[in-house]
Amino acid sequence: MTxxxxxxxxxxxxxxxxxxxxxxxxxxxxxxxxxxxxAEAPAAAPAVPAAAAVEAAPPPPPPVxxxxxxxxxxxxxPYWAMPVxxxxxxWAYVYQATLEPPPAGESNPVVLGEQVYxxxxxxxxxxxxxxxxxxxxxxxxxxxxxxxxxxxxxxxxGGWPADTYGATDKAKAGGMPPHAALTDQELAQVVLYERFAxxxxxxxxxxxxxxxxxxxxxxxFAEAGLGELAAAAxxxxxxxxxG
Length: 243
Known about the structure:
Elements lengths: L5 H15 L5 H15 L9 H7 L9 H8 L8 H18 L4 H4 L1 H9 L3 H4 L14 H4 L3 H14 L4 E2 L4 E2 L12 H14 L8 H10 L5 H4 L3 H6 L10
Antiparallel strand pairs: 1-2
Helix pairs in contact: 7-11, 10-11, 11-12
C-alpha cells in the first residue's frame, strides 16, 4: 500500500474544514502559525566561524620596555621649580667666584708697593720725577744693591751713619725721613715698586725675585742681610730687625 505524503494529507484536511466550516485541528494550526512567525522573523545573521572572529580582533599592544615604564612612573618636575633650575648656573658662577683667589692685582707686590709709595709721592713726585726730594729715575744707579736701598728707606738720612749715601756718594741733605715703622714686607714692596717703576729692573732678575720673596713674607730682611754700601757706612746689623 502506497503511503500518502504528510503535506498532502494536511492540505486535504484544510480543504474539508473550509467546505464544512470546521476549524482545523489545533495540532494542525500550530504548525501554520509557527510557519507564519518564522516567515515574519528576520533572517538570522550567518554564524561567523571562530577562526574568522579571532583574525578580526586587534592584536594586543606590545609590552612596554622597562626603562620606558620607569620613566612613566617617575615623578615629573613641578612647574614652580623651573625658575629655580634656570637660576642654578648663575648661582654656581657666583659661588665659584667666592672660592677663587682675589685678582692678581690685589696681591701683586708691585701694586702693594705703589700704595705704600703714595706717602712718598709728595716729595719724590707721583712719577718719581722729584720735587722737594730728589728724583728717583736714577735710583738703581744710586743703589745698585736692593738691600742698601731698603736700609736707606728704613733709616733715612738721619739714621744713615755716613756723611754720604749711595754708590754716587751724594751728600746727605738731612731731608730723608726714616720709615722704621714699615714692616719687612712693606719695605720690600715700596723698594720693589721704585726700582721697577723708575729703574726698570727685569722681573726675571735675581733682585726682583728676592724682593718679591720678602714682600710676600716668604723671606725676611734679616735673611737677606746688609748690603755692601750699608756695611761700609757702618750700619748696625740690628737695624735689619727694625720695623
